[in-house]
Amino acid sequence: MEIVTGAMGSLLPKLAALLTDEYKLHRGLRGQIMFLKAELESMQLALERVSEAPVIEKQVRIWARDVRELSYDIEDSIAEFMVHIDTNPSAKPHGFTGFIHRSLSLLTTANLRHKIATDITGIMALVSELASRRDRYKIDNDCFIGPATTTIDLRLIGIYKDTMKLVGISGPQEELVKLLMDPGTTSRHRVKVISIVGVGGLGKTTLANAVYQQLRGQFQCHAFVSVSLNPDFRKILSSILRQVTGEDYVAIETWDVMEIINKTRLFLVDKRYIVILDDIWDKSAWKHIKCALVDNNCGSRIITTSRLLDVAASCCSEFDGSIYNVKPLSHYNSKKLFYERIFGCEDGCHPELKEISENILKKCGGVPLAINTIASLLASKPQTITQWCSVLNSIGTGLDKSPSVENMRKILSISYYGLPSHLKACLLYLSIFPEDYHILRDQLIRRWIYEGFIPGDDVGTLYEHGENYFNELINRSMIQPEYIDIHCRVLACRVHDMVLDLITSLSCEENFITVVRNIQQSTMSMPNKIHRLALQSCASGNAKLKALNLSHLRSLVFPPATKLLPTLPCFPILRLLDLEGCQDIGSHKIDGLVNLFHLRCLILKDTNVTKLPKNIGNLRYLQILDIRNTSIRELPPTIVQLRNLIQLHIDKFVTLPVGFGNMNSLQLLSYIGISKSPQFIEKLGHLTELRMLHISITDTWYKSYETPLSNSLCKLEKLDEFCIDARVPVEFLSDLAWSLQHLNSFSGGRLSSLPKWINSSLLCLSTLDMTLNILMQEDVQNLGSLPVLLSLVLSVFKMEQQNLVFGNNYDEFQCLVKFSLASDAMRLVFSQQAMPRLEDLDLAFRVKDTEHYDFGLENLSSLKHATIRIDCGGSSVYHVDDADTTLRKATFANPNHPRLDVIRHFEDAMIRDNDLHVHDEAQEEEG
């Protein structure tokens, strides 16, 4: 199966760059490069054409493999030449020393040009031989035209966002709830285990989660954990303990497993709990985890999911339990899921496609993953019989005879081969992450960019393309969305186990990514050239790792707590180095870092590094640097030489060097401590490309810098997100004369009142979080006029004496989805038709200072969830109960029937009825 095009995507632009005057290549060599570029472009198109075919002849497969490997070698050679030329100092010292230096520099440059000429001559011979083989095999080189701009398909978001709306879930959910809660012939107080079993893709996890969400409110504590094929028992048991107790235990990962088990058992000994253990692969995993789950005669429940029947039986044998076999979807529900995904409704299928759709559904065998995957593929194609027949004929035997993992692979591979070539590499890259890993969208897109999977030079455009790629993979059901924000943006994703199984297999076959789950495994199976290496085990095995040929490595991802990192000079062409969470990595481990001239992305977050190398400025191509949560306290002066640096993530106590204001390529800067780098304030305005800025103010002395800080901020016209973390009032923000055409998110410190610049002119502001001394009706109107405001979070010390009315004007808060307001004395009223799209409401107030609780919750027509936090301190039980009852009545009267959570704080500080009576008598006696 040939799928990706090697390094072609980043190689061809490099060849084009070599033809410019900057590299001063002689005419003959330029002609060779032009020929080489044209030939490789033709080969790239042939590779893309080959990648669309599920079945490939062996000789074509070998040809494609050789082309890909050659593309890596060519790019390595050219990249080395370009780096040496680009890093050759332009400023030379004068005098005799300068003459010697210039002579050596010219000699070195000449040698480099001679070397690249020799390399190109050798490459030409290899390319010519591959070209003749291509002609002999008659490989078609039609090109594929990629898709246009993509947005998230909201129909698919709905499927994942609300499990209650999933097709065919209600029946199995009711059956499972009955099995769990009906005591049957045994004691209702015994622990009961239900083992859900079925082939991958049948929806076991979805079903377990739906039951869990429905029932967990009936139990005192609960937990949901994924076990997976290679379980980390300390991590799993730690998660269970954290979830059931609600406590965030410090450094729990360092505890002994027995200590975690004993702590969990002690807590659960008298609790009624429900625990979901998802995706158990072997009996030993269950035996380890069940040690923490006590049979305490409190009516507790456990749900397990597994693909293996004997594992499910083992889970049921210890406690009172039964096996629940997940059934495929009925034909009716299969059609419903299939048609809704493609056409948006059950009866939207064109008449001429109904017969062929029945044949496709038959081959999907009622497996939701298969149905959704094929439907997503068809949704992206023209609705013609020819296209649908092509998909049908490619499925092969399908699931109608044997619903096995191999058949699921065949189903998934059809959708895989339907991907454009630029998405194949992006999806294959996901095999670098372990099972059940929550992959952050921004992290993934950045890695795609620095791996060269997204062509182009403009960073903003690259990221937009990356978002399109990410959204397209979701739309095609190749990845599953997680953490969907109020903007309907998917902030993270995960890969279904069966998809991960498929892409890991393909990635290994393509020598695209080498995943090592245990370094102790034999290195005989390792490829001769490793391009991308992901270690997913902390086990020792440094000698075996050093024995590998890592000279061709482009990206390296290590697990936390690793001791395996070889010396960095082993990776001469490394582009991406991710050491996040590796606590054993100290400053001595990164001594050779400055020689990684090709490095684009360096992640040292959550390591024990205390300082960066003095010559960090040598990394001229570095674009991302993340040193958060390290012991680094200052940046070396040479960091200002990183003129390509786009994103810098540091802690607010890190000191910036002189000249930092000249780094005008920066687009993200977080966090900057004003007290640590006051000299930088005046230079901040020079960073005019900044899109995201987070600053911190901790001292009152900064007032002397208010004017230069204000002047600098006003120059940042491209700012998209601004956050100021301040422990002191920041009144200067009120008077800023900003031109904030691009501001999307603002999180400010404490202000006396709402700044005047927050008004309807902010056409892009969607998220606002502020603390105000006072909130007035005029402020409510200004906030309501923000045209695209989606999330509003306010902390207010004082509200106007009269009630603040939200919804006075029909056009106020038309887009608001989330609203949070905290104030000692709550004085607000939601009028009819107020906030027509509000779904999530969070109010916090003191009962003692609030005169009434008729806030008009019944008028919020789209409300789904309201959280009311009441401070009971100093209030009578009667008044607290009155507030609670009034709020519940209003919510009950809301036609949308939202869920209401009333959370009482400081109940122990309430005035009891007896205390109130004594208090009244005392007042009478004093009178």
TrEMBL record:
Gene3D superfamilies: 1.20.5.4130, Helical domain of apoptotic protease-activating factors, P-loop containing nucleotide triphosphate hydrolases, Ribonuclease Inhibitor, Winged helix-like DNA-binding domain superfamily/Winged helix DNA-binding domain. Keywords: Coiled coil, Leucine-rich repeat, Nucleotide-binding, Plant defense, Repeat. The keyword Nucleotide-binding applies. Residues 432-503 form the Disease resistance protein winged helix domain. SUPFAM superfamilies: L domain-like, P-loop containing nucleoside triphosphate hydrolases. GO terms for biological process: defense response to bacterium; innate immune response-activating signaling pathway; plant-type hypersensitive response. Residues 189-339 form the NB-ARC domain. The keyword Cytoplasm does not apply. Belongs to the disease resistance NB-LRR family. PANTHER family: DISEASE RESISTANCE PROTEIN RP, OS12G0273300 PROTEIN. This is Uncharacterized protein.
